[in-house]
Specification:
Protein name: Bidirectional sugar transporter SWEET
Structural class: mainly alpha
GO biological process, one term: carbohydrate transport
Distance between the termini: 53 Å
Strand content: under 5%
Family: Belongs to the SWEET sugar transporter family.
Subcellular location: Cell membrane
Largest sheet: none
Membrane topology: Multi-pass membrane protein
Length: about 250
């Protein structure tokens, strides 16, 4: 039987967390390849990348304040570079209105929010409590980020379509939350561990929803086609499955 110390377990799960997090950071590549091919970012939102950059910046700051946190520092350095690259490409190809709104978001959230956090924690909070203050801010922010997919889950239930909730991304987010939960557990870092419990639960919930609704839309469309072929409608009554399909299409933004 292999026996690992807590330090070795921190290293193992930290390395695994880095690998999975890197794959999550690369997940939007198809989106940006589409933007590059179309030479337009219209139809896509920049907010997820602005929020992801702020999250990476906060965790990077926390990693520098915390001792022996090189694995937190490395992945969030990489994350900052990737998110900045995404935002630059987005701004290049965005219409004027979206360019302005994205730059405002970056100025307010990433520069303003992160800058204000640094100023307050550096000049107001005592040095002995600084790492705890920043860790708490990171934990609260990450809980908010993990809760964000609730709107997508609601849309899946309402539209019975998983078009905007790919299974692979939900799987990698769940794996990511799992790796960082165990990293925080063995490192005795509640600011890393606790938010990832919520991340794991939401990730599993998304995968369950995907399995429930992955064929729901196809079944509705198939039933609609069969009824039309057999002449079930009398011309005076709307075909219910067809109405459902139309409503689903109208509800997909």
């Amino acid at each position: 039987m292999f026996s690992f110390s807590d330090h070795e377990m921190v290293l193992i799960f930290g390395l695994l967390g880095n690998i999975v997090s890197f794959m999550v950071f690369l997940a939007p590549l198809p989106t940006f390849y589409s933007i590059y091919k179309k030479k337009s970012s219209e139809g896509y939102q920049s907010i997820p990348y602005v929020v992801a950059l702020l999250s990476a910046l906060l965790l990077l700051y926390y990693g520098f304040l915390k001792t022996n946190a090189i694995l937190i520092i490395t992945i969030n350095c990489i994350g900052c570079v990737i998110e900045v690259a995404y935002l630059i490409m987005y701004i290049i190809y965005a219409p004027k209105k979206l360019k302005i709104s994205t730059l405002v978001f970056i100025l307010v959230a990433d520069l303003g929010g992160f800058g204000l956090t640094m100023i307050i924690t550096f000049f107001v909070v005592k040095s002995s409590f600084r790492v705890h203050a920043v860790g708490l801010i990171c934990a609260i922010f990450n809980i908010a980020v993990f809760a964000a997919p609730l709107s997508i889950m609601r849309k899946v239930i309402r539209t019975r379509s998983v078009e905007y909730m790919p299974f692979s991304l939900s799987l990698f987010l769940t794996l990511c939350a799992t790796m960082w939960f165990f990293y925080g557990l063995f490192d005795k870092d509640n600011y890393i561990m606790l938010p990832n419990v919520l991340g794991f639960l939401f990730g599993v919930s998304q995968m369950i929803l995907y399995l429930i609704y992955k064929n729901a839309k196809n079944k509705v469309e198939t039933n609609s086609t069969e009824e039309q072929e057999h002449g079930c409608d009398d011309g005076n009554k709307q075909d219910f499955p067809s109405v459902v399909v139309v409503e689903m299409k109208e509800n997909i933004v």
